[in-house]
């Protein structure tokens, strides 16, 4: 049975505070939530002062967490040497998201009908780490999108597995909570949307333009074709390694991504992307 709305959110924020992470400023339901922006993706979200909470305050609808399986725990950090006991996928993301969904009647943001994406980037060995992720996700099944015997049931939060992804294990599963993050090579493949709802790729592997001057017409056409192909097979699009230093080059790339229909714009600068998207409605 769920805790009450106030108690559930408070419990999740208390868990963050116990890890030395400051809670969000007080609000009626315990966390300040911004206006949700469907295209806003927080790259390496856990490196912010308040993992998840800062992203939610800026209206982000997708966050990325790198995980390592260490002594049976899913620890969140970019590098193996940076893991800390207690800084887990469960405490930073699954518990707070579950509390918010329970408190907001089935959505991360009150009244928002979109799916929140939790991108879980596996850094350790693929198969055992994925198995541990599935076990933890199962404890939060009521908020999650799930796949069962050929059918996908949408939830408030969709967990997408990136990094070291065990494709054969995931594709063979009759039931799962994790979905596969594809790559450019998967465009036009037979991988169904029920397995691969997202295709991500390094921007610099595909495009030479970095926001200086106008985007070459050939590259704009390539981007439009890429996005159209992904959408045709039921997959959303994300790029990493796009320019992210403040300045006109970054905003020029963001504008092209938005115009082309790229679903998730990748950034470490939460406030800047929030402003950019808010200005464009």
TrEMBL record:
User: Which segment of the chain is annotated as a signal peptide?
Assistant: 1-26
Q: Keywords for this entry? A: Signal
Q: Which GO terms describe its molecular function?
A: phosphoric diester hydrolase activity
CDD domains found in the cross-reference section: PI-PLCc_GDPD_SF_unchar3
Q: Which GO terms describe its biological process?
A: lipid metabolic process
Q: Does the keyword Signal apply?
A: yes
Q: Which domain of life is it from?
A: Bacteria
Cited InterPro entries:
AIM6_PI-PLC-like_dom, HAT_RTT109-like, PLC-like_Pdiesterase_TIM-brl
Name the record gives this protein: Altered inheritance of mitochondria protein 6
* Species: Arthrobacter crusticola
């Amino acid at each position: 049975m769920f805790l009450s709305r106030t108690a559930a959110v408070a419990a999740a924020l208390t868990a963050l505070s116990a890890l030395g992470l400051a809670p969000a400023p007080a609000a009626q339901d315990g966390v300040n939530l911004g206006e949700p922006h469907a295209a806003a993706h927080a790259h390496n979200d856990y490196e912010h002062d308040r993992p998840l909470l800062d992203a939610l305050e800026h209206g982000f609808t997708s966050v990325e967490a790198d995980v390592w399986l260490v002594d049976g725990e899913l620890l969140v950090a970019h590098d193996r040497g940076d893991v800390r006991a207690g800084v887990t996928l469960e405490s930073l993301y699954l518990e707070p998201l579950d509390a918010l969904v329970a408190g907001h009647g089935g959505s991360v943001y009150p009244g928002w009908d979109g799916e929140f994406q939790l991108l879980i980037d596996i850094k350790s060995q693929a198969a055992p780490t994925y198995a541990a992720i599935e076990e933890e996700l199962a404890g939060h099944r009521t908020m999650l999108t799930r796949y069962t015997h050929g059918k996908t049931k949408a939830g408030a939060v969709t967990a997408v597995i990136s990094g070291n992804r065990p494709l054969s294990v995931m594709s063979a599963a009759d039931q799962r909570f994790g979905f596969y993050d594809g790559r450019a090579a998967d465009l036009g493949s037979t991988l169904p949307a029920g397995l691969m709802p997202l295709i991500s790729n390094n921007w610099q592997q595909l495009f030479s333009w970095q926001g200086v001057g106008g985007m070459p017409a050939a590259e704009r056409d390539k981007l439009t074709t890429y996005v159209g192909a992904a959408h045709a097979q039921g997959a959303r699009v994300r790029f990493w390694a796009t320019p992210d230093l403040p300045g006109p080059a970054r905003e020029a790339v963001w504008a092209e991504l938005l115009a082309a229909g790229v679903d998730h714009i990748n950034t470490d600068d939460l406030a800047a992307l929030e402003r950019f998207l808010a200005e464009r409605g």
